[in-house]
Amino acid sequence: MQNDFTIRPATLNDSDFLVKAILMADRGPSPVSSYSGVFNLSEEEAASKIKLMLEEELDSCELSPEHFLVAEKDGQIAAAVAGWVEGFDGVASWMVRSALFQEYYPKEALENAQKLKPVVDEVVVHRTMGALQLESVFVDPAFRGNRLATKLFSAHVENCKKEHPKTEFAELMTYLENKKAIALYQKLGFDVIKQSKSKNPNVLNYYPGSGMVLMQIKLEKLLTT
User: Fold this and answer.
1) Residue 183 neighbours by CB distance under 10 Å
2) What is the rounded CA–CA span in Å between residue 34 and residue 55?
3) Can you tell me the distance from the alpha carbon of 221 to that of 189, in angstroms, rounded to the nearest whole number?
4) Can you give the pTM of this predicted structure?
5) Rounded to the nearest 5°, which phi and psi values hold at 2?
6) 148-177 mean pLDDT
7) pLDDT at 69 > cutoff 50
């Protein structure tokens, strides 16, 4: 327990909050998430599909409850962060997500994403194999100011060092236009190691940003933050 908050592994019973975390973290300050915009779905439709994906409990991406830690107070979830080591089982996270989209998104949505492949290819940045991925970082507005995200980061790092002791770095992604998030992560010690930018004038209709940034930090530094 930390300042009356308990950090624990998420379960399927937390799926409503996890769906919210996945979508809100992806959106940032934008009105659209990639889970809806790229596939021409409403946010409600995307949320319902993500909830079904969570029930699969697949490894190696943020669409699995077992990769989430949550911070809880008085039985109410206040924050969530997903974490996994990229490619620890030989499969990249984008491949797992793609398989889930193929399974749960309607045919028309997949066709729409295929039409946008040139934009997708411009925006997507691939994660570093063997690095701890910190994803879907979300703190309920009512609980902000308690450093819950950094506490969840540290808990993920502690778990990673036990289960994957050779892991050296942690990474996270956000969008170019999410300047506030980038500044906060840089303050924690993250450095931008990759970034993308689409030239498509309509990219913000499909994504929360015109490009993505991949940020990295040494595990030990994040533990002491």
Assistant:
1) 9
2) 20
3) 7
4) 0.95
5) -130, 115
6) 97
7) yes
Please check whether residue 206 lies inside any domain of the structure.
Answer: yes
Domain count, the chain: 1
What confidence tens digit (pLDDT) does each residue in 101-136 have?
Answer: 999 999 999 999 999 999 999 999 999 999 999 999
Q: Which residue has the tokens 């063997």?
A: 130
Q: Would 97 be classed as within a structural domain? A: yes
pLDDT at 223: 84
Beta bridge partners of 7: 71
Residue pair 191/207 in contact by the 8 Å Cβ criterion: no
Among 84, 159, 161, 96, smallest CA distance to 128 is for 84
| Distance of alpha carbon 189 from the chain centroid | 19
Helix (H, G, I), strand (E, B) or coil at 71: strand
Q: Tokens 């009105």: give the residue.
A: 31
The first and second tokens of residue 94, run together, are 């984008």
What CA dihedral angle connects 137, 142, 146 and 149, to 10 degrees? 0
Q: Which domain covers residue 69, as residue numbers?
A: 6-223
